[in-house]
Amino acid sequence: MKQLSESEVSIKSLIDVFDSAFVKVSDETDESFWVQGGNLKTKIRIDEKRKYLRFSIVYQLAVKPTLAEATRLANIINGEYLFIRFTAYESEGDILLASDYYMTYEEGLVCFHLIKIAKRFEELTVEAIREYYNDYLS
């Protein structure tokens, strides 16, 4: 199984891992890039100081709940889905949901695990949105 040592983890090496798994990568910067999943795009950032990767998805609801209701549902999800963390916030009049997951790469990273975590993160985010925010989807 292919692995990256801690010193080998970089935007370029991570993109190479996703490319080799036939996962579409876009919007590369010095600190992050996006991977296209089955339904949503996931942003992956490197925090070199803390030695972790941050996976995040932002989703705009089609039908706007109140911010209080969106936050209440996000808190319920946080109790049910321990793997991911949800937050709700308002931006330019829209209610947005953000899900996050943090993965350490201290001591190295198993490439298969990276791909599997990215896919599972997206699956759980979609599942949680469909289960708890179904009334606010188009």
Structural class: alpha+beta
CATH topology group: Yope Regulator, Chain: A
Average of per-residue pLDDT values: 94
Major sheet: order of its strands? Answer: 2-3-4-5-7-6
Unreliable stretches (pLDDT < 50, length at least 5) are: none
Assembly type: single chain
Envelope shape: elongated
Helix content: 25-40%
CATH architecture: 2-Layer Sandwich
Task: Please describe the structure with a list of short key phrases separated by commas or semicolons.
single chain; 138 residues; alpha+beta; Yope Regulator, Chain: A; elongated
What does this structure look like?
With 138 residues, this protein is of the alpha+beta class. It has a single domain (3-133), classed as Yope Regulator, Chain: A. The protein has helices at residues 11-20, 67-80, 111-132; strands at 3-4, 25-26, 32-36, 41-47, 52-60, 85-91, 94-104, 109-110. The strands form two sheets. A six-stranded antiparallel β-sheet has the order 2-3-4-5-7-6. Strands 1-8 form a two-stranded antiparallel ribbon. It starts with a strand and ends in a 6-residue tail after the last helix. The mean pLDDT is 94.
Topology (SSEs and partners):
Elements: E1 3-4, H1 11-20, E2 25-26, E3 32-36, E4 41-47, E5 52-60, H2 67-80, E6 85-91, E7 94-104, E8 109-110, H3 111-132
Antiparallel strand pairs: 1-8, 2-3, 3-4, 4-5, 5-7, 6-7
Short description:
The chain is of the alpha+beta class.
